[in-house]
């Protein structure tokens, strides 16, 4: 028996009646929209997001990160593991954002992900962390300690780009 209903035994009808959920007995009211942030806060958020993307692009351009795969000091095993890990994380993102809503006709509630997608979010997190670790190991012989802040900025730029979708 639900906590919000009870059997109407006095009337002997066997039907359920709705119980009041608050002391006043009134039904709760819900607002349809969240209040919007002020314009200056929204512009500040966009400016910070743009700075992360510009910083990530600058790292890619000025370190010639695309051509790093041919560098003789690159740890190729770790770089391949990093690419596989990031590929799995991206596939999980695409599964949750495109496949599930369009094929299964259900939306994934990210606020309640433990119920709607219990294994997908932890799997993507583990893939992202292993990709970050493998990237750091792969790039360490080339960039040294600078590999960690570079990867962090690249990660933040990636997150900002993904949040657009």
TrEMBL record:
InterPro entries: TMEM128. Pfam families: TMEM128. Residues 1-31 are annotated as: Disordered. Residues 1-21 have a biased composition (Polar residues). It comes from the Eukaryota. Coiled coil: none annotated. The chain crosses the membrane at residues 43-68, 80-100, 120-140, 146-164. The keyword Transport does not apply. Keywords: Membrane, Transmembrane, Transmembrane helix. This is Transmembrane protein.
